[in-house]
Amino acid sequence: MTTPQTDPEALRRRALDSLTSARDRTRLLTECVDDGELTAQHSPLMSPLVWDLAHIGNQEEQWLLRAVAGQDALRPEIDSVYDAFEHPRAERPSLPLLAPAEAHRYAGEVRGRVIDVLEGSSLRGSPLVDSAFAFGMVAQHEQQHDETMLITHQLRRGPAALAEETATPPHASLSAPEVLVPGGPFTMGTSTEPWALDNERPAHRREVPAFWMDTAPVTCAAYQEFMADGGYEDPRWWDPQGFDLVTRQGVRAPLFWRREGGVWLRRRFGATEPVPPDEPVLHVSWYEADAYARWAGRRLPTEEEWEKAARHDPATGRSSRYPWGDEEPGVEHANLGQRRLRPAPAGSYPAGRSPSGVGQLMGDVWEWTSSGFLPYPGFVTFPYREYSEVFFGGDYRVLRGGSFAVGEVACRGTFRNWDHPVRRQIFSGLRTARDARPGEDGTHVGRDR
To answer: How many other β-carbons are positioned within 10 Å of the β-carbon of residue 116?
Structure first.
């Protein structure tokens, strides 16, 4: 019996749709500003937009035209220029980059050839080709760079260049601020998701004690309580390295916030607006997220807890692909795909809640967990070490769930993101958890976050 995850024609359609959706977003992000904005480096943390554009085309050429189709290289001389591991972001403006028009032409020529390869492929015969894996990997790569380019747009100065949907997201008030997730084993990771990346594999059993978890991400209003209570000045709540960092840098609020006339404002994609109290807080580092959780008398969830809350159905014992089930994300489920250039208010998307009653686990904000980035038992590198293996260990912390900037193809219940605990420019927020006490039955009333 075939399913949409195994049927070759369904996979071919999904691959084409995913590649097309990613390219539409890439065009929007790179055609809404002039050549000077494309070639400028808006922050040393980020590449010039034109580097991302040509890098997307170069990776697509290397994997789909050369590795899959066996074609000769179109532009072998640029491979090293667009090698992300060879050149740190701060150095990339000094490289001999393709000019904007040439980068667009190159990416377009590669895509035209890739469509021919996809249409002619049996999607069988090697691990790269089976189930259209390489096509899905490349679509995810482009969507990840679309999110990176959106971060660059947030960092750039000047008038707004992007438009967004104005439709109100599906909303329902929170029935409770937190829910009990029962203890016991669950299946973490996957061995069956055709486009899952190597760090999501293999599926394995994890035993997780019962815990309480916020039903929505922490809001700006709740975070302002932490700020007003002197949270940034009190070392009791902070990891020592984090407290040293915020003290030296004078950090007293999330990135892009400023106080004016007694009101907190934020800069968002070229516009300044009052901080919305009911939206999830955005642009906080792991250190800030951890400090808030401690101040609230709680903690950040572990990666295992987050995934169990997102995928495990206590009634059946099964782990689904998404919190709402196995079907692909719809507009009723989650805030994804850069349709809205902001998180949706807490309590939105009731159709996207998990069986445990936890909402907004997909989209809106990447959620920091307490866990370091490590391989699963039985991990095997595929198809290259530089995607996951070289990042294991160190100070990386795992983020889960995606953000409003993430394309649907790069967001699922098993997807793992990671970054340094100092990072604030990313679309990161948090939700908190706490241990369950013996005898708790799930009935709890607490303050709304």
So the answer is: 11
Rounded Cα distance, 420 and 289, in Å: 13
Cα angle: 76, vertex 79, 80; to 5 degrees:
130
Could you tell me where in the chain the CATH 3.90.1580.10 domains are found?
173-449
Question: How far apart, in whole angstroms, are the C-alpha atoms of residue 116 and residue 343?
Answer: 37
Quote the mean pLDDT of the chain.
95
- CATH 1.20.120 domain residues, the chain: 8-155
Q: How far apart are CA 211 and CA 193, in angstroms?
A: 27
- A 10 A CB-CB count for 202 gives 16
Look up the CATH architecture of domain 8-155: Up-down Bundle (1.20)
Residue 437 has which token pair? Answer: 């006490």
The per-residue pLDDT for 4 is 63
The DSSP code sequence of 273-304 is EEPPTTSBP-S--HHHHHHHHHHTT-BPPPHH
- Which tens digits make up the pLDDT trace of 266-284? 999 999 999 999 999 999 9
The token pair at 199 is: 């760090």
pLDDT at 129 over 50: yes
Alpha carbon distance 408, 256 (integer Å): 26
Going from the C-alpha of 8 to that of each of 2, 18, 111, the distances in angstroms are 9, 15, 20
- Average pLDDT for residues 295-321, to the nearest whole number? 97
Per-residue pLDDT tens for 22-56? Answer: 999 999 999 999 999 999 999 999 999 999 999 99
Residue % of the chain over a pLDDT of 70: 97
Are 431 and 213 a contacting pair, CB within 8 Å? yes
| Rg (the chain; Cα; Å) | 22
Among the listed residues 2, 1, 5, the one whose alpha carbon sits nearest the alpha carbon of residue 328: 5
Query: pTM, whole model, 2 decimals?
Result: 0.95
Q: Detail the DSSP E strand segments found in 314-437.
A: 366-372, 397-400, 417-419, 428-429, 433-435
Q: What is the pLDDT of residues 175-190, one digit of tens each?
A: 799 999 999 999 999 9
Q: Are 279 and 346 in contact (CB under 8 A)?
A: yes
Strands 428-429 and 417-419, sheet pairing: unpaired
For 17-52, letters b (16+ CB in 10 Å) and e give ebbebbbebbebbbeebeeebbbbbbbeebbbbbbb
pLDDT surpassing 50 at residue 171: yes
In whole angstroms, give the CA distance from residue 304 to residue 327. Answer: 22
CATH node for 173-449: 3.90.1580.10
